[in-house]
Design brief:
- This protein is α+β, with helices and mostly antiparallel strands.
- It has four helices and eleven strands; from the N terminus they run E-H-E-E-H-H-E-E-E-E-H-E-E-E-E.
- The strands form two sheets. The protein has a six-stranded antiparallel β-sheet. A five-stranded antiparallel β-sheet has the order 2-5-10-7-8, with no helix packed on it.
Length: about 210
Amino acid sequence: MPTTRHLFATPFIADTLQSEEGLRLLREAIRDQQDRDEGIQISNIDGWHSNTQMLEWGGEAARALAYKAMTLADEQTIDIKKPEGSRFTWHPEMWANVSVKGSANQYHFHPGSFWSAVAYIDDGYDGATDPKLGGELQLQDPRMPMVRMTAPDLRMKEANGQPMHSEVLLRPKTGMIVMFPSWLQHAVRPFHGEGTRISVAINLVPVLKQPG
């Protein structure tokens, strides 16, 4: 009898930010920066994308959020040459996104980083649950494009016998933080809510700790 193993799973971590005060301070810092800076355009379609120096202008709440992401990364990573105490620490890079009706983000990934995280400071849904509002985080299986091009109607089976999905959608929620490998392609579907979506993205670059 043949045996089947499912190899090379992609880690995806989700947690909740507990501090309402921290969320409030982040919202204020991002709005203040948006008033001062016209922003940049990278993967964003419409909306506002800050510079990547949020650790400098985001205040203590931004530093606390970066520390949260670094803690999650520590919990999910092991230094195989020194498993009892990693030789590495993290250099965080952080920026804010503000999305309004019609905003989206194209598929992209974050080269040069190890982990990437997104924290939702305000999901923009204002309590509405209609799925037509969109704005989902979209994650693409990195193995799928080639085999889908070969035979678009074929699917490999999951361990439960169901067809594998080439994309996973996650509906954001205020206070949610998610983390995934930086090579995982991701996008944001067009947001159709009447509110304002505010999120913070974090890249974590591994660096060797300094002696002493």
